[in-house]
Design goal:
There is one protein chain. This protein has 505 residues and is α/β, with parallel strands linked by helices. The protein has 3 domains: 183 residues, 3-Layer(aba) Sandwich (Rossmann fold), CATH 3.40.50; 186 residues, 3-Layer(aba) Sandwich (Rossmann fold), CATH 3.40.50; 96 residues, 2-Layer Sandwich (GMP Synthetase, Chain A, domain 3). 32% of the residues lie in helices and 23% in strands. It has a 9-stranded mixed β-sheet with strand order 2-1-3-4-11-10-9-6-7. Strands 14-13-12-15-16 form a 5-stranded parallel β-sheet, with helices on both faces. α8 packs antiparallel against α9 and α13 runs antiparallel to α14. The radius of gyration is 27 Å and the shape is globular. The structure holds xanthosine-5'-monophosphate (XMP). The site of xanthosine-5'-monophosphate has 12 residues, from loops. Its EC number is 6.3.5.2.
């Protein structure tokens, strides 16, 4: 595989993604951890970009031992400057950053740009520039800010490029990475989702032997894909447990059961815990308290279920690669509190398995589709672990849950009917505790105000309110006030994040 040493650039995950898209497995590795890698398997090393200057006091370093291994190396941006600095060349610090598109001119034939144009646009984002190359290196491309936009060693497979091939704005970026992995590292392109399934099948069978695995299925994308994968690999040695807390969207609990019990023929256990959750949530208005109660109650129910599985040895969980990278742990053997079921029992004697912990979200979606999961599950929008409880402001009653479920269902239907479901990132309704006066027929009404929330976003960290056309909003509002008993006014939230959050609680 290819190791991408993580020097901190915001594009690092993208380098890994691009290489995997080329059919070669790649992993992001902290520079300090390089020598813990399975070195005989490492066929190439990419030194990533990063925010530092090589002259910064705490600038991350390059261990020269790495160069002794004779593994092909590609330094990108900071990675190139680090190579130059470490090997005796000169990097000049520069207060001005070069940021954006610039024209690259190839000045010498080289394996990275073989067969490509002699001049094309690339994406630059750097402060310092390479002034003098280290001994043994030659320059193979220039741009208006540097004579050394690309370099290569005369006899060894060591390359450096100042621009970012992983960014789409770099015209031949993918081809350059392709040349590196295929021609220079001589790697076969055999990484794919079907190959992943094959490898996981061997791995998990070998690990589990005749043991039994359980998992908590929430109906979300990650836990659904884990369930589908383990159903495929382990058949009867696997039991997914679905705790129905009554706070899912309309028909979702039923969909989960139909998909996994009927279509996937798993031993799915559904625990109807609606009454327990309602009882615990009765009279509670504080959002953080709601979250805590739901998290704790979930753990209790799940622990009770585990007791019925005396022979279970393993617990599967849908941790993704981004969770692993973000939590900064070297191995993913800890149960994370951010998991959407609110954290699982801490002192369980079960061994954790996380079959998705090397995959990115869209790879997980691809895996789900290949395992036969329906689009409706695989492309599900994000949904908070505490479910509809945090979309009902104030205390929760079964009737308010009905209002949110019915209005949310209408919203989903109309968003889909109007072809907006792909472009809007997340959309849902929120029930306020406000009541306003209205009129219906000849009668005065006094009912709840319902909010429509719909946002566009990439990752949920920032978001803009979605610009749903007025006609669509009109149709939605009409249907909601006519079809959902208990509301007489619908408002549209036009706040972006920041300053608002996506959810209201
Ligand atoms: P906010 O409201 O913070 O939401 O802008 C960002 C994203 O996170 C989801 N969200 C949650 N997910 N448990 C979850 O699993 C929670 O308590 C929770 N609160 C918010 C939200 O739906 C959005 O996608």
């Amino acid at each position: 595989y290819i190791v991408v040493l993580d020097y901190g650039s915001q594009y690092n995950q993208l380098i890994v993604r691009r290489i995997r898209d080329l059919g070669v497995y790649a992993e992001l590795v902290h520079p300090d951890d390089f020598f813990s890698c399975d070195l005989p398997q490492v066929k190439g090393v990419i030194l990533s970009g990063g925010p530092n200057s090589v002259y910064d006091e705490n600038a991350p370093k390059l261990e020269t031992k790495l160069l002794d291994l004779k593994i092909p190396i590609l330094g990108i941006c900071y990675g190139m400057q680090l190579l130059v600095h470490t090997l005796g060349g000169v990097v000049e610090s520069n207060d001005l950053r070069e940021y954006g598109n610039t024209e690259l001119n190839i000045t010498k034939d080289n394996p990275l740009t073989k067969g490509l144009a002699f001049s094309f646009n690339v994406w630059m984002s750097h402060g310092d520039v390479v002034k003098t190359l280290p001994k043994g290196f030659i320059s193979v491309a220039s741009s208006k800010t540097t004579d050394h936009a690309m370099m290569m060693h005369e006899t060894q497979p060591i390359y450096g490029i100042q621009f970012h091939p992983e960014v789409r704005n770099t015209v031949h970026g993918i081809e350059i990475l392709d040349h590196f992995v295929k021609d220079i590292c001589k790697m076969d392109k055999n990484w794919s989702i079907p190959a992943f399934i094959e490898q996981k099948t061997l791995e998990i069978r070998e690990l589990v032997k005749d043991g039994h695995v359980i998992c908590a299925l929430s109906g979300g994308v990650d836990s659904s894909v884990v369930t589908a994968l383990l159903a495929h690999i382990l058949k009867d040695q696997f039991t997914p447990i679905f705790v129905d807390h009554g706070l899912l969207r309309k028909d979702e609990a039923l969909d989960v059961q139909n998909t996994f019990k009927r279509d996937f023929e798993t031993n799915l256990i559904t625990v109807d815990a609606k009454d327990r959750f309602f009882a615990k949530l009765k009279g509670i208005s504080d959002p953080e308290q709601k979250r805590k109660i739901i998290g704790n109650e979930f753990i209790k129910v799940f622990e009770e279920q585990i007791k019925n599985f005396k022979d279970a040895k393993y617990l599967a969980q849908g941790t993704l690669y981004t969770d692993v990278i973000e939590s900064g742990t070297k191995t993913a053997q800890t149960i994370k509190s951010h998991h959407n079921v609110g954290g699982l029992p801490k002192n369980m004697k079960l061994i954790l398995i996380e079959p998705l912990n090397t995959l990115f979200k869209d790879e997980v979606r691809d895996l789900g589709i290949r395992l036969g999961l329906p689009e409706s599950i695989v492309n599900r929008q994000p949904f908070p672990g505490p479910g509809l409880a945090i979309r009902i402001l104030g205390d929760i009653t079964p009737d308010k849950i009905r209002i949110v479920q019915e209005s949310d269902f209408i919203l989903r239907e109309e968003i889909k009917n109007h072809g907006l479901d792909k472009s809007i990132w997340q959309y849902f309704t929120v029930l306020t505790p406000l009541k306003t006066v209205g009129v219906m027929g000849d009668n005065r009404t006094y009912d709840y105000v319902l909010v429509i929330r719909a946002v566009t976003s990439i990752d949920g960290m920032t978001a803009d309110f979605a610009q749903i056309p007025y006609e669509t909003l009109q149709k939605i509002s009409n249907r909601m006030t006519n079809e959902v008993k208990g509301i007489n006014r619908v408002v549209y939230d036009i706040t972006s994040k920041p300053p608002g959050t996506i959810e209201w609680e």
